[in-house]
Design brief:
It is globular, with a radius of gyration of 25 Å. Helices cover about 5% and strands about 60% of the residues. A hairpin with a 2-residue loop joins strand 9 and strand 10. It has four helices and 38 strands. It has a 22-stranded antiparallel beta barrel. It has a five-stranded mixed β-sheet with strand order 8-11-12-9-10. The protein is an all-beta fold and about 700 residues long.
Amino acid sequence: MTRTLFILLLLPTLVFSQEILISGSVSDGNRPIELANIYIEQSLEGTSSDVDGKFSLSTDLKGQVTIIISSIGFETLEKIVNIETQDVYLNIILKEGNALDEVVLSAGTFEAREKKTSTILRPLDIVRNPAAGADIFSALQTLPGVSTVGDQTGIFVRGGQASETKTFIDGALVTNPFFSSVPEIPARGRFNPFLFQGTVFNTGGYSAEYGQALSSIILLDTKDLPTNDILTFDINIAGLGGSITKKLSESTSISGNLSYTNLAPLIEIVPQNREWNTAPNNIQGILFLKHKNKNEGIFKNYIQYQKGNIGLSLVNPSNETDNQDIDNTNQNLFINNSFEGYIGNNWKTRAVASFSYDEDRTGLGDDNFSSEEFLAQTRLTIRKRINSGFRIKMGGEIIASDGTYSFNDLSSNVQNVISALYVESDLRLSKTINGRIGLRGEYSSILDAWNVVPRISLSKKISKSSSVSLAYGDFRQVPESEILREQAENLNFEGSQHLILNYQLKSEGYTFRIEGYLKDYTSLIREIPEGTFENTGFGFARGIDVFWKDEKTIPNLSYWISYSFLDSKRLFRDFPTEATPTFVATHTGNFIANYKIGERTTLGASYTYSSGRPYLNPNNSTFLGDRTPEFHNINFNGSLLSDIFGDLTVFYASLRNPLSFQQVFSYRYSDDGASRIAVNPASDWSFFLGMVININ
């Protein structure tokens, strides 16, 4: 249910009046450019140029807007236009892009960016995803390579645990990108998707710039300076919020957001599968300062604070009248200071200094658990284009963490400093072949151990619209804190090696992508009978991911289909034998569709299928030999643009699982194994209603 707390449609930021026609032509100065993308940044709505380079689109927006024009092989152009009462005509001339960028290294990578033509998704695709409820992480779960795990928090990529996927915001590591949760109730992401202009989801073989993730990284880039002042109010069935953005000058802006969410009203309406003691609720505040210097470098200072509560009664499988109360309070603070721009002799620099604090306190019956985690990070990356066929990137980072973990009167502390250096080069090996070679070295103070690992990628352009890519990478990760607080001596980094082969076809309105991969796990943590840990575990994951997106066949309809096949086994933690983990589903499929009716109405639908996942049955002599039933889920959403007293207003609604498919994520057994209860979602179905008002 908590997956539907935020709005379902990207909000335009300007007030609309009568429609204005924006038209023009796109050329390279001599010849027209066909199939160039032209869209308005504030609305992400647009069109493409015809065979003569001509284009036209109408808009309700008024005031200063930024129009983005892009085409494969050319540099992207941003043009600021002031829309008043007359139609606008633009004569656009694009410059040829650097040949190094024409061949895209796409193995293992999905990108959703506003200003890059090679991306498969746009930020709008994430926000409008009917299965996501405007949560970035829920949207990523509908992409190939991700297993549907409805009773645990996190992103489970290609046979990896949730802890093997790391999230970065403007280059800064986020300790915990999710709201805190209680058992069997997964949490949604803490970060508003409207903050970001780009999302990169890498399912393997990622850059040497990033580490400490055995499976996947998620890179989120916040938006640059706004073009105008914005004031919005959000009122919905589960809370309210407001935000304000003010341009202090042409180069400086400040914005703030405050929101409060409480699911109690929704819980009263929708039948529940849980007995709630405290309905999920949280309050959140954001402050964001941005400044652009005279050299177009941008400074960003981002501060977010959140505090929440949740409580419920867990049913006892042995005696359903003997419930066990569990209550959780949590708060977290995330501060990130970043700079990105050019210094010196054309060296592009990204500097990051971040701090985070996460506190989690849980009461389970008479027992109390708590954790306090601090993390500070500094990162400096510099890059330079040496010539048309060679770029180099190098840098380093320091991540210092301090965690205190308590159980009743017992307490333990885990302190660690990770130091890393990395270097990477992009090479144009021929007119149709690009390569990337990287090396990353890390040192962990708590393990007193080093690692140096390679990353290699190749991509060949087969035709104007298709390419094939190959990637290999070696990845290392410090064991989880739950292991280190028990034992840190005689342990080393856990490891994984990725080999990925990718084919991608991307033409105007269509995208097809198929990717096969092999992933070997080494030095995984195993608990041996004496109650100690050692790096003797191992495992593998192999599979095929398929993605198809169509924005052209049916007018006003955009849809995508994803499918994943996964075969994975491990011998790690307390596993007595090699087995498929509980977070692995062999088959996963998603269908996502959005249909636009006129200029102001959008409808969406999604369907998700997943084969059964393993669960532990104490009555079965085969370890993890049982499977849950197949998973089915349907979602619908819709939005309508209107106005109240002349101010742009968006009404939105969503409906989750209206057919009440019975969804079973696992089973909990009594101590003697004689009885069990199914682990289901918090409710069989749910809905959500709300509106957002933009004040002029």
